[in-house]
Amino acid sequence: MNAYDKDIVAWANQQSKALRDGRFDLLDIEHVAEEIEDVGRSEQREFARRLAALLTHLLKWQVQPERRCIAWKNIIAAQRPPVLLRLKRTPSLESMLSNPGWLGVIWIDAVADAVAETGLAMEAFPQEWCWSVEDVLSDDFLPG
């Protein structure tokens, strides 16, 4: 069993020290590359999670007009800054917003969450992305 499998924290500390010391011969290249890729995937997952949460609340706003209130409006407003902050900190995530397949998966997650939170049938919600990304991210946008 290598250090990576035995204690990943100790391994990470060893690898960062080797990098800083210029001791590239001590690097576990394959695992270092894997961990760097994982950082990117983690950022993508967090971005997707936050965008899905925003969409979930927008969907609930659209299909339950009788339940709209200032608290819901505030929740929607609170969901946008974390999404926008992710885009600002990681501009490469913006390309995901023009990927219909990726957006479709996020939409499905958002609808599933909205169904779970409202108890409404899946058919009560739009089955495909129905707003522009610009609208979703705009402070002024509320559907319906």
What percentage of the residues does DSSP assign to strands (E)? under 5%
Number of helices: 6
| Largest beta-sheet details | none
Find the count of extended strands (DSSP E, 2+ residues): 0
Shape, principal axes of CA atoms? elongated
Cα(first) to Cα(last) distance is 58 Å
Tell me the helix content.
Answer: 55-70%
Overall mean pLDDT: 94
Structural class: mainly alpha
What is the helix/strand order?
HHHHHH
Low-confidence stretches: none
Rg value: 20 Å
Name the descriptors.
about 140 residues; mainly alpha; about 65% helix; about 0% strand; elongated
3D structure, described in words:
By secondary structure, the protein is an all-alpha fold. It has a domain at 42-137. The protein contains six helices and no strands. It has helices at 3-6, 8-20, 29-63, 70-89, 100-118, 133-137. It is elongated and about 65 Å long.
Layout of secondary structure:
Elements: H1 3-6, H2 8-20, H3 29-63, H4 70-89, H5 100-118, H6 133-137
Helix pairs in contact: 3-4, 3-5
